[in-house]
């Protein structure tokens, strides 16, 4: 006879040979094994003592549902690689409050193989970084399902379908709640009238039963979302907002049934429907409002084509955007959005660049012009050659930055989430203490219960939990519309706390396109040699001389050796001679004597030398960017100290500083000296935001609290920056601070309101001054006040 043995989780008996054996423990399935370890890791082994000899239903692992998450095609579509680990964005259904966020993050962090797990309360979007060698995606999703939530990969188009389905479900539940509440109010009016003027018992019983019929679907259909959340909260030994609402409404419902059949006391079915309906109405409006904020971010990638027309010989082939390779020839038509960066090879047309630069006027692009992803073709048929693959294109980087921006929570939000995690438990304790006090001192069970229900219902962890994430999302969305990308939402808070703005000069304050105004040739030379040297440098001064020479150069020249010296110049050998370009310091290091020439005052200088002799001198002058003076004046009016750090000569730096209204200038600085200067400011107690665009700014940018780069900056500068102005408009810098200050101000207002609301209303409810009806209305309004205040940022 086969040996029978119980599963150590569900306690059901099975043939011992069919069980999963793990040391001295036996499990009937992977689900029981997983939950056993989850409970043990969370310190909840006491569950089995309470279970005793009772049995429970083993969890469904849903193998048919989750196995496809591990398929190669699925992983390639939704999973990205990050620092050798896998990264995926999931939408988690069933999250109602900050406590839900806390529970999911806690369980995910406990899961072996998960490196990082961060959930945004506003859109229920989770960013999970995990080691694919240790844990599979299917296991992660099943872990989330095991604690009562559902998860599926984030996809803008699919997310829209889910969001609409959820909105329809909430709408139908709200209609039921409103219908029953309106009808029960008429009955309640009759009840209250009869209470004062007198009413026959049989009529009162009929009205009580009618209220019971109306309250039941409201509680169990409209309020089902709270019972589901409360069930999983209790299952995981965690008190959340759903437990507060469900317990408050259920207590009033149960007491009303008792009163209806016993004839003792009054019924409160009207309070039941109003508690559920008012709180649910607040949640429905909250869902709609949050979706409006999220739509701004989703709009960046929801309308992207999944396939592009690629020219292969004489044929046109549809190719998935992920499979586009460099040098593929792509065809786009009127109305198409450019997804891959490239260079136009055939045709010309107008392009809408508003999503990139904010420029509302269409830009005409023709053959050989560079075309950036994110722009929209307005007319004509254009063919262009891909110069990057999809994941290297500008649009993909923008979308990645937007997604990453919401994954990092500001410190205030982290604090609010921790508080919310313990808030509901505290309220439940206060409610029970209030019930005990009223019952012991006044002897009325009915009165004690009603006061207890008011305390449970009026407390609102939602307002506290929503105080930061909604404001943050709206701020990020508004910034994105203005062409400002925050790599992390935390920088909204950091910028608002900074007091010093450090600006680079060339390419940041100025246009970065200096023009040659003066020249002096000490001897004749081959322009092609100088052209080759300036072409090797990305410095704006070199580029200005290159533009000046391009009409004189008839042939290309290749140096035997060529070396670029950062922030100084370029030196190379050709035909046994040394040629060099650079600033005065670089010339002196090479042993070249520099001569001062009249008429070059206020100009940036570029020297050209052959061996030890000076050959030519070029004087260039740059212009401040449009709106630089007004923007800097605005930033100074906000209380920011603005200073300029530049590697250029003192005379040039002072000239530009005077034009834009900067009084503090440090000039002739090497890259490491810029970084040291930032450190000196920080050591003096300053909090620094730095704006730069070049390779020579990278060190200083990395030292500052927040690094801001214009979209035209060098790739390495963009990589170390925290905020990117993709429109390349200096005036956007003013918007960065304006949005950061307003967002941080709203966050503080929301937190202050949430805390003040609970400090005032909870004692009032405990003192018996608030009935359940008013408590439910107050709870909903507190959440809506926080959300509505956040939307003002728009």
Protein described:
With 794 residues, the chain is α+β, with helices and mostly antiparallel strands. Helices cover 51% and strands 19% of the residues. It has 29 helices and 31 strands. A seven-stranded mixed beta sheet has the order 19-31-30-29-20-27-28, with helices on both faces. Helix 27 links the parallel strand 30 and strand 31. Helix 8 runs antiparallel to helix 10 and helix 15 packs parallel to helix 29. The protein starts with a strand and ends with a helix. About 1% of the residues have low confidence.
Euclidean distance between termini CA atoms: 73 Å
Beta-strand share of residues: 15-25%
Helix content range of the residues, please? 40-55%
Radius of gyration: 34 Å
On the 0 to 100 scale, the average pLDDT is 79
Task: Report the count of strand segments.
Answer: 31
Q: What's the overall geometry?
A: elongated
- Helix and strand composition category: alpha+beta
The number of distinct helices, counting runs of at least 4 residues, comes to 29
Low-pLDDT stretches:
59-64
Sheet with the most strands: spatial strand order:
19-31-30-29-20-27-28
State the major sheet: 7 strands, mixed
Task: Give a short synopsis of this structure.
The chain has 794 residues and is an alpha+beta fold. The chain has 29 helices and 31 strands. Mean pLDDT is 79; it is low at 59-64.
Helix/strand layout:
Elements (H helix, E strand, L loop, with lengths): L3 E3 L6 E3 L4 E3 L2 E3 L2 H12 L4 H6 L11 H4 L5 H7 L1 E3 L2 E9 L4 H13 L3 E7 L4 E6 L6 H10 L3 E4 L2 H42 L3 H22 L1 H12 L5 H22 L6 H34 L4 E6 L2 E6 L8 E4 L9 E5 L2 E4 L1 H4 L5 E3 L4 E2 L4 E2 L4 E5 L7 H12 L5 H32 L2 H14 L2 H6 L2 H13 L2 E3 L3 H8 L2 E5 H5 L5 E7 L5 H9 L4 H10 L11 E5 L3 E6 L2 E6 L1 H6 L14 E7 L2 E9 L6 H10 L3 E5 L4 H11 L3 E3 L4 H13 L4 E5 L5 H6 L2 E5 L4 H6 L2 E3 L6 H35 L5 H20 L3
Parallel strand pairs: 20-27, 20-29, 27-28, 29-30, 30-31
Antiparallel strand pairs: 1-2, 3-4, 5-6, 6-8, 6-9, 7-8, 10-11, 10-12, 12-18, 13-16, 13-18, 14-15, 14-17, 19-31, 21-26, 22-23, 23-24, 24-25, 25-26
């Amino acid at each position: 006879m086969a040996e029978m043995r119980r599963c150590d989780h569900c306690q059901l008996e099975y043939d011992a040979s069919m069980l999963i054996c793990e040391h001295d423990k036996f499990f009937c399935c992977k689900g029981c094994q997983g939950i056993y370890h989850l409970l043990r890791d969370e310190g909840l082994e006491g569950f089995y003592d309470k279970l005793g000899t009772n049995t429970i239903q083993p969890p469904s692992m849903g193998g048919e549902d989750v196995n496809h998450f591990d398929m190669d095609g699925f992983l390639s579509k939704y999973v990205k690689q990050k620092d050798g680990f896998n990264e995926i964005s999931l939408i988690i259904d069933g999250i109602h409050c900050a406590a839900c966020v806390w529970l999911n993050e806690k369980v995910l962090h406990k899961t072996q193989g998960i490196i990082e797990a961060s959930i945004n309360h506003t859109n229920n979007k989770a960013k999970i970084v995990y080691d694919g060698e240790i844990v599979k995606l299917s296991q992660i999703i099943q872990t989330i399902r095991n604690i009562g939530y559902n998860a599926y990969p984030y996809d803008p188009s699919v997310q829209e379908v889910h969001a609409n389905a959820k909105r329809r479900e909430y709408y139908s539940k709200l209609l039921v709640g409103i219908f029953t509440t309106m009808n029960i109010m008429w009955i309640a009016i009759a009840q209250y009238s009869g209470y004062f003027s007198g009413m026959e018992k049989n009529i009162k019983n009929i009205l009580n039963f009618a209220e019971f019929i109306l309250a039941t679907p409201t509680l169990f259909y409209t309020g089902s979302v709270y019972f589901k959340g409360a069930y999983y909260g209790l299952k995981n030994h965690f008190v959340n907002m759903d437990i507060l609402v469900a317990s408050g409404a259920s207590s009033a419902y149960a007491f009303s049934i008792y009163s209806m059949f016993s004839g003792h006391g009054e019924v409160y079915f009207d309070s039941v429907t109003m508690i559920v309906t008012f709180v649910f109405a607040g949640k429905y409006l909250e869902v709609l409002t949050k979706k409006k904020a999220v739509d701004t971010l989703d709009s960046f990638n929801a309308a992207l084509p999944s396939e592009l027309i690629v020219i292969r010989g004489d044929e046109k082939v549809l190719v998935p955007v992920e499979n586009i390779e460099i040098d593929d020839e792509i065809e786009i038509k009127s109305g198409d959005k450019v997804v891959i960066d490239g260079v136009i090879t055939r045709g010309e047309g107008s392009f809408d660049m508003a999503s990139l630069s904010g420029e509302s006027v269409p830009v005409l692009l023709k053959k050989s012009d560079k075309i950036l992803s994110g722009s929209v073709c307005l007319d004509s048929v254009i063919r262009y050659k891909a110069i990057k693959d999809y994941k290297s294109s500008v649009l993909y980087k923008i979308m990645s930055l937007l997604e990453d921006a919401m994954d990092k929570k500001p410190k205030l939000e982290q604090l609010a989430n921790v508080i919310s995690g313990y808030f509901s438990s505290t309220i439940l304790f206060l409610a029970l203490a209030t019930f005990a006090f009223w019952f012991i001192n006044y002897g009325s069970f009915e009165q004690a219960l009603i006061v207890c229900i008011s305390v449970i219902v009026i407390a609102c962890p939602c307002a506290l939990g929503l105080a930061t994430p909604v404001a943050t999302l709206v701020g990020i969305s508004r910034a994105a519309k203005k062409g400002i990308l925050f790599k992390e939402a935390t920088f909204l808070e950091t910028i608002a706390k900074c007091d010093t703005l450090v600006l680079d000069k060339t390419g940041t304050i100025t246009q970065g396109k200096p023009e040659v105004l003066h020249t002096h040739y000490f001897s004749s030379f081959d322009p092609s040699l100088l052209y080759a040297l300036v072409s090797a440098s990305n410095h704006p001064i070199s580029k200005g001389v290159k533009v000046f020479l391009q009409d004189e150069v008839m042939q290309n020249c290749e140096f035997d050796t060529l070396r670029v010296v950062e922030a100084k110049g370029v030196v190379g050998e050709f035909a046994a001679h040394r040629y060099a370009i650079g600033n005065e310091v670089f010339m002196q290091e090479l042993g070249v004597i520099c001569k001062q020439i009249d008429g070059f005052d206020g100009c940036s200088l570029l020297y050209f030398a052959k061996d030890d002799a000076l050959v030519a001198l070029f004087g260039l002058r740059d212009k401040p960017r449009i709106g630089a003076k007004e923007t800097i004046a605005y930033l100074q009016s906000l209380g920011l100290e603005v200073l300029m750090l530049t590697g250029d000569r003192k005379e040039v730096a002072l000239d530009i500083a005077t034009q834009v209204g900067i009084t503090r200038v440090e000039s002739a600085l090497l890259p490491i000296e810029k970084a040291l200067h930032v450190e000196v400011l920080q050591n003096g107690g300053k909090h620094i935001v730095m704006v730069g665009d070049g390779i020579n700014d990278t060190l200083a940018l990395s030292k500052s609290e927040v690094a801001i780069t214009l979209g035209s900056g060098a790739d390495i500068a963009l990589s170390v920056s925290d905020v990117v102005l993709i429109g390349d408009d200096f005036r956007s810098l003013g918007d960065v601070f304006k949005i950061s200050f307003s967002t941080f101000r709203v966050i503080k207002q929301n937190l202050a309101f949430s805390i003040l609301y609970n400090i005032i209303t909870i004692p009032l409810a405990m003192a018996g001054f608030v009935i359940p009806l008013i408590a439910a209305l107050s709870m909903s309004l507190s959440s809506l006040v926080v959300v509505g205040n956040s939307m003002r940022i728009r």
